[in-house]
Structure formats: C-alpha cells, structure tokens
C-alpha cells in the first residue's frame, strides 16, 4: 500500500474510533458490574470463541495462506461501531452492544498481536514467516484506538449537544472512507480479485453466520433477555473490518492479507441487514 493510501486508512480508523468515543460514557465501561453475565459471555464469544471458530473453519475449508491469515486477522478484530448501529436497528440491547464494543476494543490491544502472530506462524511456510513485534504493535494499536476514543469521550462529556450532533456525520464519513479503502484494495488486487472472492467469500460468510448463531444460542442457553441475545449475536458476528484492513496493509504491509477483511466488510452489510429485518419485526414480541 502506498503512503497516501496508508494515510487515508489511518484517517478512516481515527474517524471511526472518534465516532465511537462520541457515543460512549463512563457507564459503558462500568456496566459489567450491573450485568456481569451478559458482558462476560459477550467478551468470551468475541475474544476466544470467534478466533477459535475461524481456525476450525480454516481447517475444514483449506484456502490460500493469504486468505487464511486475513480471516484470522479479521477474527482478532471483533465489534466496531457498525455492530452498535446494527444492534440498535435490530432492536437489540444497544447499551450492551456499546459496552461490549468499548471493552473488546481495550482487550484486543493485547490479543491482536498474539492471534495474528499465531496465524502468521501457522499458515505461512518456513522461510516466509514474519512476525508482528508485540510491544510495538500494542503501542500502535493503543494509539489508534485509545487516543481518538478518549478524545471523543472528552467531547461527549464537555459538549454533549455537539457530540450528539456530530455522531451521525462522523459515522457517515467513516463509512465513505471505508468504501474508498475497499475499492482501492480491489483495484490493486484486480487481477486476483475473482479467485480471491471465490476463496474468501464462502469462508467469511460462514464465519459471520456461525459466530452470530453461536452468540445468539449461547445467550439463550444462559437465559439472557431476548434483546441481550440479539446484541450478543451481532457483537459476536460483526467484526471491525477497518481495523483488520489496517493491520494487514499498514502493520504487515501486505494487501493480499486485506482481501478477506475487505470482502467480509461487503458481506456483513447484507447479513446485518437481514438481522435488522428479522429481529426488527420480532421486536414487539420481545
């Protein structure tokens, strides 16, 4: 990825995380004390179950090393503002969704380097193996996540009306920039995009569906409220594609690793739309 593309992606991620901060308050981080079962289940699904399901799918449905690594990078990046929007429109527990996104964003600062390094070691051949320096990667992700979220929360606290007014434009801007980044990746990899889509389309769709199903039924098994089950389902299955693309293209300097997250980012809007329609219609009975 060239320097201008890297700058655009960094701006996109900054805007997305700033937008998340504009919607967060202190209670979003302390809600675990009031609803520990729902929060803990959601985090276990996001941090542990999601990468495990991705790894199992890759062993059942073998694909190229580049796609496999992209899928694992994607699985290391749960949540994101998109999941909050989908949970809201699907009539889920929006507060729970926001809390899970906020807390998983903090936890993945530590877990992303571990999962990505495992994927690089496992799927690349000897001689091709590269490693993310853990301390440096943690510092970089910390800066990318914590600074804009903290800035957004500060604005929310000091200027709540301005934060509410800016929330929608910031979400729209982040979506536009994400689409630009995805189109850039597709153009750069256009010679390979059809075979990549054949390889990555099915497995990213399967990852999305299986993790959402697992999230929903695990919540029902623990007898959580229907709205909580909807949010945990969405938080388990909707990933932060922008973060995954950033790790692939900026930290690993390999656009081929970004193909699976880019294709997934297109797929998730379709499945997210179905979730909104399905659960939105059932909302009156919940």
Which structural class is indicated by helix and strand composition? mainly alpha
Counted beta strands: 0
Number of distinct helices: 12
Question: What is the CATH class?
Answer: Mainly Alpha
For the biggest sheet, the summary is:
none
User: What is CATH's topology name?
Assistant: Na+/H+ antiporter like fold
- Helix and strand run: HHHHHHHHHHHH
Question: Shape from CA axes?
Answer: globular
Describe this protein's structure.
With about 290 residues, the chain is mainly alpha-helical. The protein has one domain (about 5-280): Na+/H+ antiporter like fold, CATH 1.20.1530.20. The protein has helices at about 5-20, 25-30, 35-60, 65-75, 80-90, 95-125, 135-160, 160-190, 195-220, 225-235, 240-250, 260-280. The longest helix is centred in the middle third of the chain and has 30 residues, at about 95-125. The chain is globular. The termini are far apart. The mean pLDDT is about 80.
Write the layout of secondary structure elements.
Elements: H1 3-22, H2 27-30, H3 36-60, H4 65-75, H5 81-89, H6 94-123, H7 134-158, H8 160-188, H9 193-221, H10 226-237, H11 241-251, H12 259-282
Helix pairs in contact: 1-7, 1-8, 1-11, 3-4, 3-6, 3-9, 3-10, 4-6, 4-11, 5-6, 5-10, 5-12, 6-7, 6-10, 7-8, 9-10, 9-12, 11-12
